[in-house]
Design brief:
The complex is a heterodimer of chains A (about 130) and B (about 350). Chain A is of the alpha+beta class and about 130 residues long. Chain A is built from 4 helices and 9 strands; from the N terminus they run βββαβββββααβα. The two termini of chain A are about 20 Å apart. The termini of chain B are far apart. The chains are: A alpha+beta (about 130), B alpha+beta (about 350). Chains A and B meet through strand 4 of A and helix 7 of B.
Chain lengths: ~130, ~350
Amino acid sequence: MTTPTNYSYTKTHEWIQFLDEETATSGITDFAQKALSDIVFINMPSEGDEVTCGESFADIESVKAVADINSPVSGTILETNETVEEDPSVINEDPYGSWIVKIGHIRAKDDLMNAEEYDRFCEEEEQ
Amino acid sequence: MDLQTPLYDCYEKHGGKIVPFAGFLLPIQFKDGIIKEHLTVRERCGLFDVSHMSEMFVEGADALKNLQYILPNDFSTMVDGQVKYSTMLNENGGAIDDLVVYRFSDTKYMIVGNGSNRQKDHDWIKAHITGDCRFTNRSDEYAQLAVQGPACETVLYALMREKRLPAKYYSFIETEVAGFPCIVSQTGYTGELGYELYAAPDNAAALWEALVGAGAAPCGLGARDTLRLEASMCLYGHELNDDITPLEANLHFSVKLDKEDFIGKAALIRRQDSPMTLAGFKITGKGIVREHCEMFLDNRKIGVSTSGTHAPYFGYPVAMGYIEKEVYEVGRKVLFRVRGREVEGEIVKTPFYKRKR
């Protein structure tokens, strides 16, 4: 699967797409969905929750494991994706098309990678 | 250093994702993933490498006498070609392992134990063997393949010249599959009709490929776990361990307190009124309850979960766990603490899944 070049990435395998300076959608990468496989549940944050760079804002559960989803930025949850909440398996099918949360009032960013840097990072992780 | 089973080279070819388990490198899943593999076993036929299980032999004139003393089930009523489940207990009545015993003759029995307990089982049995009895661990002489699901007979018959399979649950025959000599038993760990094949390690890869060719889909440890959980079968290290008695684990059928002395008998009698019992839960709240989640009723801790995940056949999560007997009641709602949150579960009858016959 091609890593979208208009997104940014974290070392904990989340992606973020900036819609403007202060607003973005975020989800998990293809690498993350493959590692989890068969995603069955996401414990979503609530609208209005404050999220912090590098800290968990949701649990994602697959048949075999549970993982944290960390926020790539600091800001406020504007919206959670109801389609994904109802059927989280869509993330397995289309990780980059399945945003999990929309974050606004972004004030700080994690050390983010571009697609090329992230692909290289994943190659190293696999070894 | 993790061991490899004779089937290790087959995994990659079928997209196996390999993890260390019970001292072996085994596939957690193949290319289609756990849910699809699980449903394949419920609807058609799946194939599992379970070569990490151990095969130990008890032979000689005193073989039966030894089994009767070392294990809590009664083997005196067994006939040739029969298989029997048992736990193996320490002096405190706790489970060293759970296992199955195959009777070849009144002087030859095979014990099949969990891979993770290989050494522990071996040491314990060896230390307790007495009289005219030879105990040998021959795990390295056998690969074990499990063929499970409603289409398993069709798959096996396609590879058998003599189309004969053990007719009864928990019985076995010695035959040939794909031209290879095998011990074939009607046993399994999925809740479906299924057979387990014991073959020479050198033949294992060819046997595996023949079974895949005949329509059995490779399945990994992930599906094995979700299938056994739906069928409410105990997994050693979860529902059973050195401190838990088989009575607490609802395995009364495999304990014969009225037979003569056996290891752990006195302790079992003493612990018959244990306050805890194993129970099944349907998760009615939002979330997945896995192992080690504390369980509460009216803010009082009443138990702990031992296994749990999404049950693919039902489409909702289930869990097993130990709960105080006095609050056990089908239909009762309890709360599990999961990663700092509370998730509701309801006590339900087990097994969660029972196949239609």
